[in-house]
Amino acid sequence: MCLCVWMSACGKTERSNTAGDGDEASATATIDDHHAATEAAADSGRQSASRPIDDAPHTVPSTQPPVISPVATEAQPPRTQPPAVLPPAALGEGRRDTESDNGEHGGGSGAANSRTRCRGLDADYRWTGRRQASQWVPGLYPGGRTERRVAALTFDDGPDDDTTGALLDILAAAQVPATFFVVGRILDSDSHPLIHRMHDEGHEIGNHTFRHARQFDRVMGVNSAHWVLAEVELCEIAINLALHTETTRDFRRARGDVFGDLHWDTSPEDTVAAYPEIRDRYELWLADRALNPRRSAYFRPPGGAPFYGGSDYAPAIHNQWGDAMERSGMLQVLWHRDTRDWELARRNDEDEVFKLTLARLLEAIHQGGIVLMHDRSNPEIVRAALARAAEWDDVQFVTLEHFVRQEFDCSLEDLQRELSAVAAVAPPLGPLVVEPEAVSPTD
Length: 443
Ligand SMILES: [Zn+2]
Prior knowledge:
Elements: H1 2-9, H2 12-19, H3 33-50, E1 58-60, E2 139-140, E3 150-158, H4 164-174, E4 178-182, H5 192-200, E5 204-207, H6 216-220, H7 224-243, H8 248-259, H9 268-288, E6 298-299, H10 315-328, E7 331-333, E8 337-338, H11 341-344, H12 350-367, E9 369-374, H13 379-389, E10 396-397, H14 401-408, H15 412-425, E11 432-434
Helix pairs in contact: 1-8, 4-13, 7-9, 7-10, 8-9, 12-13
The structure holds zinc ion.
């Protein structure tokens, strides 16, 4: 039964595989490209070993554009129509067939005449507020000044059956908001109540892709936008199925009905090929229940790639990522402070891990900005850090919207509206042609 394949793949055994990979690349106020590149190289090796790409170029059905709907973080009133679906792919009309040589986003779209309210976000999806050429899509990146002791906590790679519940208890007791960047494939029966708690207790839920694969571009080549977009949308579908089902039994059934036999190690090509049918089943599932899908405001790329460690990527690769992000309607969120809790957790001495991670978390909160942690870290570290930080008179724990307002000078709602408008008019991606020889990272 298809469901069983998917369910077993989402279990703890496989999840520990991800946990053991190490995670996000390092960045404090500056970018540690060297570290990221090292991780990237190791990760790339693992991926290519587990997911070989056919030697012969071939085509798979074109990825359809995502469903774009009004963004909301709360439950929406019932609707009577299925979500709007954009026109079929206009093959060969990819808008970025010309490339600048500095990795910037090229091309233009029909949204060019629309006015924007958010600073730096022009109608062509270029982000004029970027500080580096590699920041080619709108997002929250490190750089610039951050206010001391004004921090947004973010937790990646969850929900974790063992730790996220305790973490939520601690955040609730301290009345501290957080953003959880969840991985779609690990949303299962055990974690179903946890994502409901995140939502109900006022935390933001962000998209961290369906299976937390990294180095998309190195695997898929110049057509990686298809896979990136499929990964983003599949995660979004998983989040919606979880939030729109009240019982774990309903969720399990919905997930099996919609995802079919897709599982965590389905190849990129097969994932891209399967996505349109999954999306069709998902839309029917929504329509049958008169549900309006929720749309995540924020997206965080696994490992921070290709932004971290991406300086060696060819402009065509950057553009592929930009094409996917543009169609997602989400804001890419990196971080100012990486506690590197994933790295410390590898040490054997638990007391040492606790002390070092606590020290780094406190330092990150003290410096302020977007702080990167992971669900799977010992939640008692967060408890201790929040207790210590509470003794500081001027500490503030804010949501990511605080940084949206600083960066774009508009509300999150306005930014979402503008990103969604751009996504709605972006032409569908052209046909996927996998040409491994065309993969062009420069190393
Ligand atoms: Zn991650």
